[in-house]
Design a protein that fits this description.
By secondary structure, this protein is of the alpha+beta class. The chain has 5 helices and 7 strands; from the N terminus they run E-E-H-E-E-H-H-E-E-H-E-H. It has 2 domains: 43 residues, no CATH class; 102 residues, 2-Layer Sandwich (Alpha-Beta Plaits). Strand 3 and strand 4 form a beta hairpin. The protein has a 4-stranded antiparallel β-sheet with strand order 3-4-2-5. Helix 1 packs antiparallel against helix 3.
């Protein structure tokens, strides 16, 4: 278990970046043979991306809520994300085709994604007494003074 970082911290990242949230839902959890290929595809992709940092994945974390798995990923750019998604030499495209051909029409497994382009300086993050996580784990974890305000950090003024 990662150690708690006492006090308030923030995430610092140079330039623009992309937040990509992707997930799956076990609509019929008893049909293991239907959801297993979807469930096992993402760890393989993450292992591949971690061994190929030039692909642009900065970091990721997973969460579970009921029947839904959600993976939040931080990418250097949309171009990196799109290139990975479309390159036949990378593991995503074949898994996506297989899902569409064998599983999608049944409704047994749901999938989703959301993509957010984040302009430099137009984000804010606070971690109080937390292990290094989220954007701070994907970028840089830095101390944050106790008088810092969200409006200032996100340059809303």
């Amino acid at each position: 278990m990662p150690p708690v970082q006492p006090g308030r911290h923030t995430a610092n990242i140079e330039g623009d970046f992309v937040v990509f949230i992707i997930g799956m839902r076990f609509n019929k959890p008893w049909l293991v043979a239907r959801w297993w290929p979807v469930f096992t595809a993402m760890p393989k992709m993450l292992t591949y991306l971690e061994s190929h940092p030039d692909k642009g994945l900065l970091g990721s974390n997973i969460s579970v809520s009921g029947l839904t798995l959600r993976l939040t990923q931080y990418w250097r750019s949309f171009d990196h994300l799109e290139a990975f998604a479309k390159d036949a030499a990378d593991p995503h495209l074949e898994a996506w085709r297989r899902y569409n051909q064998e599983i999608a029409a049944s409704g047994d497994v749901g999938v989703f994604h959301e993509t957010f382009k984040v302009a430099a300086g137009s984000y804010e993050a606070v971690y109080a007494n937390m292990p290094v996580t989220g954007l701070a784990a994907a970028a840089a974890h830095a101390p944050l003074g106790s008088t810092s305000r969200a409006r200032t950090r996100i340059a809303a003024d």
